[in-house]
Each structure stands twice: as structure tokens, then as C-alpha cells.
Automatic annotation (TrEMBL), chain A:
<dbReference type="GO" id="GO:0046653">
    <property type="term" value="P:tetrahydrofolate metabolic process"/>
</dbReference>
<dbReference type="InterPro" id="IPR006279">
    <property type="entry name" value="SoxD"/>
</dbReference>
<dbReference type="InterPro" id="IPR038561">
    <property type="entry name" value="SoxD_sf"/>
</dbReference>
<dbReference type="GO" id="GO:0008115">
    <property type="term" value="F:sarcosine oxidase activity"/>
</dbReference>
<protein>
    <submittedName>
        <fullName>Sarcosine oxidase subunit delta</fullName>
    </submittedName>
</protein>
<dbReference type="Pfam" id="PF04267">
    <property type="entry name" value="SoxD"/>
</dbReference>
TrEMBL record, chain B:
<dbReference type="InterPro" id="IPR006277">
    <property type="entry name" value="Sarcosine_oxidase_asu"/>
</dbReference>
<dbReference type="Pfam" id="PF08669">
    <property type="entry name" value="GCV_T_C"/>
</dbReference>
<dbReference type="InterPro" id="IPR013977">
    <property type="entry name" value="GcvT_C"/>
</dbReference>
<feature type="region of interest" description="Disordered">
    <location>
        <begin position="1"/>
        <end position="35"/>
    </location>
</feature>
<feature type="domain" description="SoxA A3">
    <location>
        <begin position="536"/>
        <end position="619"/>
    </location>
</feature>
<feature type="compositionally biased region" description="Low complexity">
    <location>
        <begin position="18"/>
        <end position="27"/>
    </location>
</feature>
<dbReference type="InterPro" id="IPR041854">
    <property type="entry name" value="BFD-like_2Fe2S-bd_dom_sf"/>
</dbReference>
<dbReference type="Pfam" id="PF13510">
    <property type="entry name" value="Fer2_4"/>
</dbReference>
<comment type="similarity">
    <text>Belongs to the GcvT family.</text>
</comment>
């Protein structure tokens, strides 16, 4: 498999490591505000979908620029449809939420 | 001659004999007078089963054996049937030999792909005591119980007999070659190549594709399995533009060779299609040489990354299934032509050609031209084509239209075939060679590795690729495009398409004129009137000895799906993966079940296309090269002292420093521990992970990644930090020092240096991207040495520059500072202690680590300074009750380790929410305790389980385990740390430590985990 890192260009699979689903977001946990409920945390930590088709997932370019990436991969074909820096994805998501 | 007489295959014609003492054979009696791509002026000597033979450069072992009249080359897997040479390529199921001797002995090597070299030694396999007289051929008589599924049915009872009796016997009787007994002395490499267009196969289609793409300027890699590119162009009597085809091949290769962007790789098998245009290929670099060449690997495993791929892998001819179709002398029709035309070898003296297609009729002409008598041409088609009629007439052979070969006759060699004509009349025709063809199977393997199933084309009687992996095109016979002219045109088209897709402007190849090549075909899979009759074994899978009767049995017992058929009969599961067997098998299953071939379907084909040696997959990563060794900055110094080293992940760490006179390692470790407790010791702790964290939000970031509080840590102080995973379990621990307003240096455990770095990056880039903080690993940049013991301050005073006050008030426990030593050398000093003694860790840039340790030894000599290793380090920390790897095992919580109070309630941090789950703080969870045997000298085994006294040693009464244990010279007893249910509430209780592996039970007292200086006076001295 080949992944195109936005910083480093196209590289072989062995430079990357896989983490998992990039569509999950960490529940709020800031004291003294009440944190999210146990159910939300259990879902975030343990429950995963097993989608067939395009899937957004987190990869780490550990043998390259050390960027965390959001890779859109077709789980049926291993086709890589898109690669973004994770930090940019989070920032864009927050901007959308604020707007 | 009666057809039942054995035909002499080793004719006793005298010939010139080479010098030497082994029994001589006549020189190549079956070598044709002319023709072939061999160097007739050079003789190559080789040995097969201990006999000397000669061949020529350009021969394969198979062609050289045939030239010498050797046609019996092996015994079959299950029934020990005599077997010869079926094919002339990598699909060979029968002619498997052990190649070379000693540590280089390689089993199951195909004689049809072994290039002959001087001194080659090969032997036949699976025979006892000799190939000609194989006692185990009585397995053939046992065949009623050796049929499909015999493993599952025959040896089921009594069950205990299976392992000790049945399996060893079956394994001896059935099997292939023997692996070498010694380690592989050769070396292997791995390499990566990039190109625009990868062309697989250098036959007419592949050469045309490479020429078209290469002329357009594309970067092309052309891989050819064979030593000589050309494919069928080398094997046929064929003229292109009126010249021999091999001349066209030579010109094409010369042109490709002159293109700077084109690389032709012969002896290279592309064995797998992987994701993203990545292909696996194996290059045989020195396999064809008599001796290993210096500085050359035996094989190179290539990863080829190609933007486009043209698969031009050609096709493999199908055998026909009939009783006795495995007798030596029965050969694929195309292989017969290869031996005649490419190798100048007569595969027999008197031939019968049996086929269902026009292509095989070339064999008739080639046999006749080579002077080999053609006794009969058996064309299974009811209305034979003009091609068949012409071929038979020109060869002076009898044409049996609508006929079939119903049985092969002979023992160790073919002596005759039984023929049935269209009217049902039977006849026996003596012959020593049967050239058979059931048509051609396109080599679709590389198109199926992404799950694509090939599609059946009835007019071709073959499966062709349908859904292709991204970026792949197929050309020539691999796509079912028959004939040289069509293959050339199709290859050029595919090459142009691939190059165009890569952005190159292409122009079509000018096509040479090629005589017409008829390829008409009508289906024929077998000539059996009934499956499972008494007519004799009709083999479908030669290598795994699967017969048509076995397929009938599989159907009868309900294994009708092709994947079930495969597993029940082992069809297609041998080293050849059924390349000559699978299509015949599923055609027979279709017939038996009344389904069409497309309805029956194919099995899924997975990589590799050809067998790959494990050595090639391992490449250079073996022995000491399996993983890199990381050496500490003081490694040379420790080596000089005679230290014993131990592996900690990739690191090599000093385990202890034995001195002359030490009675054993225990005495050495005791001495080192005592030195730290009473004087001063030093230990390299460079291997702990070090991460430099800087930025205005560094403290806020630490608040998130550590479970405990960080905001109030002043500059110049360090603090213990506990890191959790998001599921609430302990991830790692270490100390982090604040060196400046916005600068921290974190330490991690040795094992987790990499994972913690990755985790911090995740937190920073994904969870909290707004923090203004940066981090980098500095593990390799700083050498760090622990100086521990009551005299440690005195030693440091000798090297720390006088401007720095080391008194307890000025530099207390957990102080951290950037200082200078030895007159201006920059260093970092931390007052940290893993041993519980007054102790420091001093860090210098890594290149000064060696100088620092030598200076410490020198300055510390008057104070009795003693180097200590990881073993003493372990004893010291157990004595002090510090958790380490065995306690931080990924299954323990802060509560389990007695650190529940560290978890902050005033902030969010990774693991906070989940750590609050009641089950994770349940007192009944195994919790950290100290352990002390009631008898101090009772060895306390780490890993032993803790059970209440008097309870049975069952899982139900298990209450915990001993995580760490050591002899403590300070306490004068064995001591240990353990995790015990309700542990802290049970101090003073006696429990039993059960060690079923060592067969020991030790009574131990539950005690607080800190054995030495529980009030911490020494720490703060």
C-alpha cells in the first residue's frame, strides 16, 4: 500500500502505523464542568464500526515527518482516496462548529 | 515389439566418456544433430542420482536429462508412482528434485527451471531405496485407503495413535524433498524499484508492450521468469518478417537494452500484486552459477512500485485426464516443441500426438522435422480441422479423427497408448512419447490477488481475466489472445495504453509479418467413461496425486463447491498450486454435478505465484541483523570492564560487572547492591526515553497527558509523572523536570520511549491542537548516568564546577538544573533516585558520555565507586517498592499500584473518565504488596501465583501473583513485589506462592512494598 503524506509525498506502508477510526471525537471531560456520561466514554474507547467502503482513519507517519494523518481508505479495495494532516482536519471541524 | 514390453530408455550406445571414476553414461543420445539455443561447443558436467552426465550451456536440468535419455526423474507424493517430465516451465508438477548438497540442498526444485551449470548435483526425491526400485510404491496398492479425505477417515481411531503412530508413518511414506539440515549459508537482499510501466513476461506481447512504452520515453521494467527473454518465440518454429523469431527477439532486446529508462530483468518472477501499484518480484541472482559469486546475493526480493502494469505472462498448457496419464514419456505438446526447438533435444523416438486443438498440430510438424516418428495423430474433434489433416499428412502419420487416448501403458516409461476412434474401435499404438494438449490456460494469477475472479470463455475453453487490479492491463495469451501476430499487436496496444496513462505520447509498433497460426479448439477435459472405475488412476493433480476418482468421491460426499473440493482432496495445494490441474478439476466437477463451468467457478488464487524461499522473504534480517542493536554511550567502557550485557528492547545494557574472584553472578549483584547502599554506584540510564517539550502551553499540555498535577511545578524541579491510557489503565511513568519557564524534559521507561512519543504527538495534533507546544525526542542526544549512594554527593563535588552548590538545602531531592562540570562542560543534573538512596542523574551530550563515566570512576575511586548493572538496579528498586515493567504491564491501574491518590480531580487528562469506573478501583483487584518468604532463603519465584494457605492449587482460589522477586542483600532475605487481591489490607498475613513450573510452594508474608528506608530519610539526606 502507498500513502501520500501531505508533507513528505508518496511513501510505502511500512513508514506508517495505523490507529483507527478518525470519525470519533473525544467526549468532553473538563472538570469542574460535568464530563460526558459513561456511555459516551465507553462508546469512544471501546466501540468501533467495521464499515465496508470508504473509511476515514488515523495514521501516523512515524518513519517520516511524525504527522498524524486522516487517511480516507476504501476498506474493500485498500484504495487511498484522500490524505490530510490531522491537525488541519480538527481545526477545520472546529471552525465549522463555531460558524 | 509388444506394447507391454518395457522400452529401453537408457540406451547402451557407447559414446565418448569424460574422465572420472563414476559410472559413465553415453553422451547425450537424445540430443538432436542441430538446432536449439544451446552452446554445443561447450560441455557442462552434472550429476543426477550419483551418475555423471553432460549437457550444454543453455540447457535446463530437464532438457539435459532428456538429452541423456533419463526420463524417470521422481516418485509421486502419495503413491510413489514413477514420474517424468511433463512440462518445460515453472508449472512443472512432476520433475521435482533436490538441488545441490549440504547446507545448500534445496528440495522440490523444478528440473524444468534449473539452468544447467558445471558440477550441478541433483537427486530424485521421495524414493526408497532407489528411484528405479521404490519399496514404497506399494502405496499404490494401498490406494483404496489413500483416497481423498483419507487423513480424516482412516486414522481416526484410537485418537491417541494419531500423533505417535499414524502421522509419522504417513509423513515418511508421503512427502516431497528434504530440507537442508544446516543453516542457509547464502545471503539475500531486498530492494525497491519504481517505474511508470511494469511489464510482466517477455514473450511476444511483453516485448511489444515494453518496446512501445519504452520508445515513448516511459520508465519501463520488463520482468521475465526465464533466463532468456522471448517466451514462446524461443520455442516455436516461427518466422517474423521471414527471419527466425529468435532474431526478432534479439533485436528487440538490443533496442530495449539501449534505452536508458528501460530495465530488463530476466530470472525475475513477479509473484504478487499488492495495493497501490506495488508488486512483489523475486530475482534469482546466482542460482544459475556453479559457485556463489563474491558480493552477490543469491536472490533479491524486489518491491516494484509501478504506475501501470502490463501482464503478459502467457499461458500454461493443460494435460488431458485419462488412466495412466502420469507415465514418464507423457508430455505437454508445447513442451515437446520447446525441447525440440529451444534445446535441440528429442523427447522420444516414436510419438503420438493427442489434442483437441490446432495449436498442438505444430508439434506434429516439429516432431517430423526433428526426425522423430509420429505414429498417430489423435484429434478429439469429431470433424478435424484442415490443420490437423495437413499436419498428419505431412508427417506421414495416421490421423484418428474424433479419437481419444483412453489409457497409457507402461511402468517406469511409456510403451504404448490405447486409442479409441470415433466409431469406438480400440487399438494399441506403441510409442515412447505422448504429446498431449487440452488447450491453454491463461496465466491470470496476478489479476486475481485483489479478489478478481477470472471469467470463462467457452470459445477458448479457458478462463481469462475479468476484473483487473487498478492500473493493470493484460495482453497476449494471458488475456486469451492467441497467436503471435495478435499477441504482438495486443502487447503494443497495452504498452501504449499504459504509457499514455502515465502521460507519454505513443505510436504503435510496426508489426512484422507472421504466418497464420490456427488455434481452433473444442473442449476436452478427460477421456473417462466413468469416474472411479477400475480403469486405473487418471491423474488430475499430478503433484498431490489427486485422481478423477477422488473428485468423484468428493462430489459423492458433498464437497461440491470448488473450495471444498480443494480442501477435501488437497487438489491444487502442492508447491505448483495446481497450475496444470485446477481447470481440469473444476470441469470434471461441473460435469459430475450437471453444472456449467462458470457455475462451478474457480478457487481464489493468492500470492505467491511461484514458491519463494523463506530466506528471500527474510532478506538480510537474520541473526544479528534481525534488529539493530542500540549501544549506550558507555558501552565501550563497560566492555573493557568485562560487563555482561542484556537486551532491553533494541538496547544492549550492562547486566552486571563481574570482578575476578566473584563466585557467580549473584555474588557480583550482591556486591553492586551493597556498594550503592553503603558507598556509591554508577549506572548508565541513557536508555530511558527523553523528550524535550517546549512552548508557552507546555505545562498545560503536561496537565493533559499526565494524570497528576503539573501547573505548580517550579523551574528547577522535577516531579514523578503517571501516564494513563484513555481506557484508564497505566500506560507509562517517569520524571519530568522543568528546566525553564517554557521548557521541560520528560523521561519515559526504556520500553515505551517510542510509544510515548507517538502518544504525545497524537494528543498534540489530534486531541488538543491549539496548545502552543513543540516536542522532540532527545534520547540519543544525551548520555545520562545515575550516581547513587550515600557518597554520591561527594563524588559529584569532584567534577561539578564550584559555582554550583550541591548541598541538600541548595539542591534538594527532586531538584533539576543546567550546570557545568569539569571546568565548563555543559551538563544537566537531576536529584532523582530509583534506589532510594541519596542519588543523582547527570546528563551530558551523548558524545561526552564515555569521558564522563571514566571521569566519575576516577574521581569516585577514593569513595569506593562501583559500576552496577540492570540486575542490581532491579534489586534496588524492588527493595524500595518501585513498580517497573512487570508491574506496569498494561493491565494495572493507578489504584492497583497504590498511586490512586495521584489522579487529579481538578483537570481533564487522558484516562480520567475511564479510570473512575468502580471496577478499576475495586479493593478486590490485585493490588501492590511486598512479599517476604517465611524462611528467608526460600527462593521466591517471579510469576508464582498467590493462594490462601491450605487452599487447593486451582484457578478458583488464585488471588494474585508475584510480579518481581530478588535476593536482597540489604534485607538478608528473598523479597518480592506482587499484586494481591485486597493486598494492602492483608499485611502480616501468610499466603502460599505456587510455582507449578518449578514444582515449588513457598510460604510468604504479605508486607508493605517498601523494604528499605520506608521513611525516606536516606533519599532526603
Amino acid at each position: 500500500m502507498r500513502i501520500t503524506c501531505p508533507c513528505c509525498g508518496e511513501r510505502g506502508l511500512d513508514e506508517f502505523s495505523y490507529r483507527g477510526d478518525a470519525t470519533l471525537s473525544r467526549p468532553a471531560g473538563d472538570p469542574p464542568l460535568p464530563g460526558a456520561g459513561a456511555e459516551a466514554w465507553a462508546e469512544y474507547v471501546y466501540l468501533r464500526d467495521n464499515p465496508s467502503g470508504p473509511h476515514r482513519e488515523l495514521w501516523y507517519h512515524g518513519a517520516g515527518c511524525r504527522s498524524w494523518l486522516v487517511v480516507t481508505r476504501n476498506t474493500r479495495t485498500h484504495e487511498i482516496l484522500d490524505t490530510e494532516r490531522a491537525v488541519n482536519v480538527v481545526r477545520a471541524t472546529r471552525k465549522d462548529a463555531e460558524a | 515389439m509388444s506394447p507391454f514390453d518395457a522400452a529401453p530408455t537408457q540406451s547402451p550406445t557407447p559414446g565418448p566418456t569424460p574422465s572420472g571414476s563414476r559410472p559413465r553414461q553415453p553422451t547425450q543420445p537424445f540430443r538432436l544433430a542441430e538446432g536449439g539455443l544451446i552452446d554445443r561447443d561447450t560441455l557442462v558436467r552434472f550429476h543426477f542420482d550419483g551418475r555423471d552426465f553432460t549437457g550444454h550451456p543453455g540447457d535446463t536440468l530437464a532438457s539435459a536429462l532428456l538429452a541423456n535419455g533419463v526420463r524417470l526423474v521422481g516418485r509421486s507424493f502419495k503413491y510413489h508412482r514413477p514420474r517424468g517430465i511433463l512440462s518445460a516451465g515453472p508449472e512443472e508438477p512432476n520433475a521435482l528434485v533436490e538441488l545441490r548438497t549440504g547446507p545448500r540442498r534445496e528440495p522440490n526444485t523444478r528440473a524444468t527451471t534449473i539452468e544447467l551449470f558445471d558440477g550441478l548435483e541433483a537427486s530424485s526425491q521421495n524414493r526408497f531405496p532407489s528411484l528405479r526400485h521404490d519399496l514404497l510404491s506399494i502405496n499404490g496398492l494401498l490406494s483404496p485407503i489413500l483416497t481423498a479425505g483419507f487423513y480424516y477417515k482412516t486414522f481416526m481411531w484410537p485418537a491417541a495413535f494419531w500423533e505417535k503412530l499414524y502421522e509419522p508413518i504417513i509423513r515418511r511414506a508421503a512427502g516431497l524433498g528434504r530440507a537442508a539440515d544446516e543453516a542457509d549459508p547464502d545471503h539475500y537482499e531486498k530492494a525497491t524499484a519504481f517505474c511508470d510501466v511494469l511489464v510482466v513476461g517477455a514473450g511476444p506481447a511483453g516485448l511489444a508492450a515494453a518496446l512501445t512504452a519504452g520508445r515513448a520515453g516511459a520508465r519501463v521494467i520488463l520482468c521475465e521468469d526465464d533466463a532468456q527473454p522471448g517466451g514462446r518465440l524461443l520455442a516455436e518454429q516461427l518466422s517474423l518478417d521471414g527471419r527466425p523469431a529468435r532474431d526478432w527477439v534479439r533485436d528487440a532486446l538490443a533496442e530495449l537494452g539501449a534505452m536508458p529508462e528501460v530495465r530488463v530483468m530476466s530470472r525475475t518472477t513477479v509473484f504478487g500484486t499488492y495495493d497501490g501499484g506495488t508488486y512483489g518480484a523475486l530475482e534469482h541472482v546466482t542460482d544459475h552459477l556453479a559457485a556463489t559469486a563474491p558480493h552477490l546475493p543469491r536472490q533479491v526480493l524486489w518491491r516494484i512500485v509501478a504506475r501501470r502494469c502490463v501482464l503478459a505472462a502467457g499461458a500454461i498448457e493443460r494435460p488431458v485426464v485419462f488412466p495412466g496419464n502420469d507415465r514418464p514419456g507423457i508430455m505437454l505438446a508445447g513442451a515437446v516443441r520447446t525441447y525440440i526447438n529451444r534445446f535441440g533435444v528429442a523427447p522420444g523416438r516414436k510419438a503420438v500426438v493427442f489434442a483437441n486443438n490446432d495449436d498442438a498440430m505444430r508439434t506434429v510438424a516439429d516432431l517430423a522435422k526433428a526426425g522423430i516418428a509420429v505414429a498417430a495423430v489423435v484429434d478429439s474433434r469429431a470433424a478435424p480441422s484442415a490443420t490437423s489433416r495437413d499436419a498428419a499428412r505431412d508427417a506421414g502419420a495416421r490421423l484418428i479423427a474424433g479419437g481419444q487416448v483412453t489409457r497409457a501403458i507402461g511402468g517406469r516409461a511409456l510403451t504404448a497408448v490405447r486409442i479409441r476412434d470415433a466409431a469406438g474401435r480400440e487399438d494399441i499404438v506403441p510409442c515412447d512419447l505422448l504429446a498431449m494438449s487440452g488447450g491453454w490456460n491463461p496465466n491470470v494469477h496476478l489479476t486475481t490477488h485483489h479478489g478478481g475472479r477470472p471469467e470463462y470463455i467457452a470459445s477458448l475453453c479457458a478462463f481469462v481475466p475479468s476484473v483487473l487490479p487498478p492500473g493493470m492491463g493484460v495482453a497476449g495469451m494471458a488475456a486469451g489472445v492467441a497467436g503471435t501476430a495478435a499477441a504482438l499487436a495486443d502487447g503494443s496496444r497495452a504498452g501504449a495504453e499504459a504509457a499514455t496513462a502515465c502521460g507519454f505520447a505513443t505510436s504503435p509498433l510496426s508489426m512484422p509479418s507472421v504466418p497464420a497460426e490456427p488455434s481452433g479448439i473444442e473442449p476436452l477435459w478427460h477421456t473417462l467413461s466413468a469416474f472411479g472405475g477400475a480403469a486405473g488412476k487418471a491423474f488430475v493433480d499430478f503433484q498431490n496425486d489427486v485422481t478423477a476418482k477422488d473428485i468423484g468421491l468428493a462430489r459423492q460426499e458433498g464437497f461440491r463447491a470448488v473450495e471444498h473440493l480443494k480442501r477435501y482432496t488437497t487438489l491444487g495445494m502442492a508447491t505448483d498450486q495446481g497450475k496444470t490441474a485446477n481447470v481440469n478439476a473444476l470441469a470434471i466437477m461441473a460435469e459430475l454435478t450437471g453444472r456449467t463451468i462458470p457455475e462451478t467457478g474457480t478457487t481464489l488464487i493468492r500470492p505467491p505465484v511461484q514458491p519463494i524461499a523463506i530466506g528471500a522473504l527474510a532478506g538480510p534480517h537474520r541473526g544479528g541483523h534481525f534488529k539493530p542493536a542500540r549501544l549506550t554511550p558507555t558501552h565501550d567502557w563497560a566492555t573493557e570492564l568485562g560487563a555482561t550485557f542484556t537486551a532491553a528492547g533494541l538496547w544492549q545494557r550492562a547486566q552486571w560487572f563481574a570482578r575476578p574472584g566473584d563466585a557467580g553472578w549473584q555474588e557480583t549483584v550482591n556486591r553492586e547492591v551493597t556498594a550503592v547502599r553503603t558507598a556509591v554506584g554508577i549506572c548508565d540510564v541513557t536508555t530511558l526515553g527523553k523528550i524535550d517539550i517546549q512552548g508557552p502551553d507546555a505545562a498545560a499540555f503536561l496537565e493533559r497527558v499526565y494524570a497528576n498535577a503539573w501547573k505548580k511545578l517550579p523551574v528547577g524541579r522535577a516531579r514523578y509523572g503517571l501516564m494513563l491510557r484513555e481506557d484508564g489503565f497505566v500506560f507509562d511513568d517517569g520524571t519530568t523536570a522543568r528546566l525553564g519557564d517554557t521548557q521541560y524534559v520528560m523521561t519515559t521507561t526504556t520500553a515505551n520511549a517510542g510509544p510515548v512519543m507517538q502518544h504525545l504527538e497524537f494528543c498534540h495534533q489530534w486531541l488538543w491542537p491549539d496548545y502552543d507546544v513543540r516536542m522532540i525526542s532527545v534520547t540519543d542526544q544525551w548520555a545520562q548516568i545515575a550516581v547513587a549512594g550515600p557518597k554520591s554527593r561527594d563524588v559529584l563535588r569532584q567534577i561539578v564546577d564550584t559555582a554550583y552548590d550541591l548541598s541538600n538545602d541548595a539542591f534538594p531531592y527532586m531538584a533539576a538544573a543546567e550546570i557545568t562540570i569539569c571546568g565548563g562542560q555543559k551538563a544537566r543534573l537531576f536529584r532523582l533516585s530509583f534506589s532510594g538512596e541519596l542519588a543523582y542523574e547527570i546528563a551530558v551530550p551523548a558524545r561526552f558520555g564515555d569521558a564522563l563515566v571514566r571521569r566519575l570512576m576516577q574521581s569516585g575511586a577514593p569513595f569506593g565507586i562501583t559500576p552496577y548493572g540492570t540486575e542490581a538496579l532491579g534489586v534496588l528498586r524492588i527493595e524500595k517498592g518501585h513498580p517497573a515493567g512487570p508491574e506496569l504491564n498494561g493491565q494495572t491501574t493507578a489504584h492497583d499500584l497504590g498511586m490512586g491518590r495521584l489522579l487529579s480531580t481538578r483537570k481533564d487528562f487522558v484516562g480520567r473518565a475511564m479510570a473512575q469506573r468502580p471496577a478499576l478501583t475495586d479493593p478486590a483487584r490485585p493490588t501492590l504488596v511486598g512479599l517476604r518468604p517465611v524462611a528467608p532463603h526460600d527462593v521466591l519465584p517471579a510469576g508464582a501465583h498467590l493462594l490462601p494457605k491450605g487452599s487447593p492449587a486451582t484457578a478458583a482460589s488464585d488471588q494474585g501473583w508475584v510480579s518481581s522477586a530478588a535476593w536482597s542483600p540489604s534485607v538478608g532475605s528473598w523479597i518480592g513485589l506482587g499484586l494481591l487481591s485486597n493486598g494492602p489490607a492483608r499485611h502480616g498475613e501468610i499466603v502460599c506462592a505456587h510455582d507449578p513450573l518449578g514444582g515449588r510452594v513457598v510460604e510468604v508474608e504479605i508486607v508493605p512494598p517498601v523494604f528499605v528506608d520506608p521513611t525516606g530519610e536516606r533519599l532526603h539526606a
